[in-house]
Amino acid sequence: MTKPHESQHQTAIARTHGGVGFAALALAALISMGGQTASAQTTPTDERIREILVKRIDEEKRAVGMAAVVVQGEQVRIVTAGHTALDKATAVTPDTLFEIGSITKTFTALLLADMVNWGEVKLDDPVEKYLPQGLRGLKLRDHTGAPIRLVDLATHRSGLPRLPDNMPYGTRADPYADYREQELLQYLKRREELTASDGGKTTRKRDERYEYSNLGFGLLGYVLGRAAGSSYPDLLQKRVLTPLGLTASWLDLPRSEEVRYSHGHYIDGDTLKRARHWRFDVLAGAGALMMSARDIGRYAQAASGAVDTPLRDAFKLAQRKYGDGMAPMNPQGLAWLLAPLNGRTVFNHGGMTGGFTSSLWVDPERKAAIVVLSNAAGQTPDDIALHLLEPTIPIKGVVRPQTAVSVDAKTLAQYAGNYRLAPGFDVVVRLRDGRLFAQATGQNEFELFAKSPTAFFARVTEFEMVFGEVKDGKAVSFALTQGGRTRTAPRID
Q1: Distance between CA atoms of 59 and 53, rounded to whole angstroms?
Q2: What's this model's pTM, rounded to 2 decimal places?
């Protein structure tokens, strides 16, 4: 058998960490709006797209620079606006480099799918099979005793947490940089010991619920490298980036490419400030890629099936349904989220780092795709991306900051607990250092701010959370209003 991507597979194609807040609910609402029409409208013109980007930058002040990529079959349109940094006059171009964050996970999943197609690994292979020799006796299991498999890592069904508990948080502005192989292996050994000592209470049953895990995808990239006798960066370059003709895509930015890098920013209230560049080590498979709009356009084109590539079959394998995901809203492929849109199934993934946000949507039936890149973190460009994919879906617009009031810690403590917003979609509310935080299934933790002693909002997405009756010092439920809909979440702990 010919080795993967050698001889006939050498030809490149001719053209080429977790949204936050209750994004899943918001996206579900937006998608349902698109379902009101039987057919899609014409994609906006380049001029109109530029107007949308400029508004997000200049009026709404939620980005410094942006790029939008529109894939329609063999045609790839790229529209840019704004600048690479607050203090620079350098305009964003199709070749400007953006951090794409968790969209990297779709690349890691594609690598897995390609290796499966070539018979190098199996989806059902236990992760422990590919650990270093010194850990070969380690049993990486869920609390039922079942081995955690490669497919479980790729579909967020492993039971592993979003992040390991031994991650050094000395520099939260660059949280992944100092987490290396040694720390990862120490975590895995410690996890086995804890699981054995407490009957498995530290893990969730596989398939019982979806739990978005950057740790899981970082581990997946690590073990795939080991399975191939390589490193994840070298393997991704050889098996994915090079075959797809992606020449402006980097896990570790070389000094020669720094001139093309767009600096990241974060939103502080209603002000944009410079953010640190995120660096990755052993968890690179979760979110390390930096790409130009031109490169990610080629990737989106390949993912849509609009052009033939050596990885066509791998894309198909990655885009199958493997689990219910964040039921009932998003079934899960290998990394990809599957969403219904006007009778079709579209695939999506977003990304966020300390200074960037991104949104990728793929519509294989129409051989279409949309990518929106922003050099600011805080508000995702999902609303813009969905509008470009399906113009009947309106642009949600900017989430404006609200004024918070002070609430005493005793009152806040009544709200801490676990709540069920929908089947398979829970919200954990925590009190820490006198501040209230929430984390929904499959999403990052974010802070809640008080509008009143019972009503709260977030600065990462628009909603209102109102806690109800308190019994025995605990709130029995909360009501969430978002997108014109109100849902009640009863306490379940």
Answers
A1: 10
A2: 0.81
